[in-house]
Specification:
The chain has 524 residues and is an alpha+beta fold. It folds into 4 domains: 4-83, no CATH class; 88-195, no CATH class; 231-346, no CATH class; 349-523, no CATH class. The chain is 48% helix and 19% strand. It is built from 16 helices and 16 strands. Strands 5, 6, 7, 8, 11, 12, 14, 15 and 16 form a 9-stranded mixed β-sheet that branches. It has a 4-stranded mixed β-sheet with strand order 4-10-13-9, covered by helices on one side. The longest helix is centred in the middle third of the chain and has 59 residues, at 197-255. The protein is rod-shaped and about 160 Å long. The chain starts with a strand and ends with a strand.
């Protein structure tokens, strides 16, 4: 029985007969003597050892001991250094087609020796045995397709390893790992390195550029992270500030409404309660103020909470605070909506009250009525201290009360009789016909007749105990056939532009005498 030894070849443990080991060791020593003692030679030798180990594993096929016959088969497969001559290479630098027998280990790598950028196209060309130019043209076309080619190229650049060793370069081309092919590839690659020196320099520059670009983006990401933290802090402070201002304003409006509102120029002298009291028919304005206060307050509290959480990054366990806040806010909205809906019912029905009477001039022979506006109108019984104008209405504060004031519309029409007449139509809305009629009847429009001069108030007002219900007043002066009416210039603001008997604008009618002739007003 032959003596056996334990060895490690190519990182794999074997039990080998002594004579087989001697033959294998002699073969490896001949390889080292043939290739030399350079780093590249040692790398080639290691690759051959790994290939020899792979072949021995196949030859064992369940056997335990490597025999001399197995070693000789491996050496014959790999080839001996003395079998390779210059004539076999034939002076060609590139491995012949015969040597390019496809190996079982055919892998995809990047080819740095033939690279223009990163060797992706060169690696694909070597793997598929196609000119790399084909893949370069394909990538260029895909780059024009919204940059798709660049994305694919970068992904392959990252994913594919670089073919650095002779073994990897042979696997890239699918060549069988034997001594003859290794020798031919070494000479071929030596020539390629010399010819592609400039292109390699360009690829190295691109590699360094990409690495530098990567480092730049990493640094930029760090800077942006710091900037993002600063921005978050600024936003948090902004949220907290807005929340505190909103809460302060809400509290002051609720408890110190008179003082706060007095500082506002447009609503000076009138509190929110007084303004709301002119429209809403409630026993207490708290039914409006409290829901509005909660609807405004809770979002401001949420802003403060979000701001504090952004700054201090604390965690809140449980959702009770969120559920409670949301429930209170929803309840306030529903309460305000209910109150608003109930108040809206007070505007559903419209009624009017009419009052028509003769205008008896002091001089019965006079045929001209002078219609003038009251320039000394004092808004009722009190001289107003402050006035707020909203659309066609004004709200005056008199003695601590808010009085609603509106403008009447004046029309000139033809009388069916021989005397001047005046028709006053008062309109208002209400929840029922009775309440709407009562609200209309309560409107106060003042006028006086002095001789042949009818002095008309430029405003009507609603008593203190009445609410705003879109009250309107229309005044129609009926002029008999052949008689005349003089319109003073101070009537321009209340004279309607929709006149049936005169196609004139109010500024054209005032300051003139008009005679009723047929169905037209004729300027005198």
């Amino acid at each position: 029985m032959k003596k056996s030894l334990k060895i490690s070849l190519g990182g794999i443990a074997f039990t080998i007969e002594e004579d087989a080991y001697a033959a294998l060791e002699l073969y490896l020593q001949s390889l080292k003597g043939h290739f030399g003692d350079t780093e590249e030679a040692r790398e080639v030798t290691r690759d051959i050892e790994e290939r020899a180990a792979e072949l021995l594993v196949k030859l064992l096929a369940g056997k335990e001991i490597v025999t001399i016959e197995m070693v000789n088969d491996v050496i014959d497969t790999l080839g001996r250094p003395e079998q390779i001559s210059d004539e076999e290479i034939g002076g060609e630098n590139e491995p012949s087609d015969a040597s390019k027998e496809r190996s079982a280990k055919h892998r995809l790598y990047r080819d740095p020796q033939n690279a223009l950028v990163a060797g992706v196209s060169a690696g694909l060309g070597a793997y598929f045995n196609v000119d790399p130019l084909v893949f370069r043209i394909l990538f260029a076309i895909l780059v024009l397709a919204n940059g798709l080619g660049a994305v694919i190229y970068i992904i392959l650049w990252i994913v594919l390893p670089q073919a650095e060793t002779v073994r990897q370069r042979m696997e890239m081309r699918g060549e069988e790992m034997n001594l003859s092919n290794i020798e031919k590839n070494i000479k071929y690659e030596f020539e390629q390195v010399r010819n592609n020196m400039k292109r390699n320099r360009f690829a190295d520059v691109m590699e360094r550029f990409v690495n530098a670009l990567g480092r730049f983006f990493v640094a930029l990401g760090g800077v942006l992270a710091v900037v993002a933290k600063v921005v978050v802090a600024i936003i948090a402070v902004f949220f907290i500030g807005i929340g505190l201002l909103g809460i302060t304003g809400s509290v002051l409006s609720l408890f110190l409404g008179d003082t706060v509102i007095a500082l506002l120029p447009n609503y000076s002298g009138l509190t929110i309660g007084q303004l709301l009291g002119t429209t809403f028919d409630l026993g207490s304005m708290l039914w409006i103020i409290i829901p509005v206060f909660l609807i405004v307050l809770i979002p401001f509290l949420s802003l403060i909470f979000i701001g504090l959480r952004m700054v201090f990054r604390f965690n809140v366990r449980g959702s009770a605070i969120f559920v409670t806040s949301a429930s209170v806010w929803i309840f306030a909205v529903l309460l305000l909506a209910s109150v608003t809906f109930l108040q809206a019912r007070s505007f559903t029905i419209r009624e009017s009250v009419k009052d028509r009477f003769e205008i008896s001039l002091a001089d019965t022979t006079a045929n001209t009525l002078w219609l003038v506006g009251d320039e000394d109108f004092d808004y009722g019984d009190y001289k107003p201290e402050k006035i707020v104008t909203i659309d066609d209405y004004s709200i005056a504060q008199n003695g601590g009360y808010a009085k609603i004031i509106g403008k009447p519309k004046v029309y000139i029409a033809k009388s069916d009789g021989d005397n001047f007449e005046m028709l006053i139509v008062k309109k208002s809305r209400g929840a029922t016909r009775q309440t709407a009629r009562h609200s209309a009847d309560a409107i106060n429009l003042e006028y006086t007749l002095v001789g042949d001069k009818l002095v008309l108030s430029p405003y009507f007002y609603i008593p203190y105990n009445q609410k705003w219900r879109v009250q309107e007043v229309e005044v129609t002066i009926f002029v008999p056939e052949g008689k005349r009416i003089h319109l003073e210039e101070n009537l321009e603001n209340i004279l309607s532009s929709d006149q049936e008997y005169c196609s004139c604008w109010p500024d054209e009618m005032v300051g003139n005498i008009w005679q009723m002739s047929g169905n037209r007003l004729i300027k005198q």
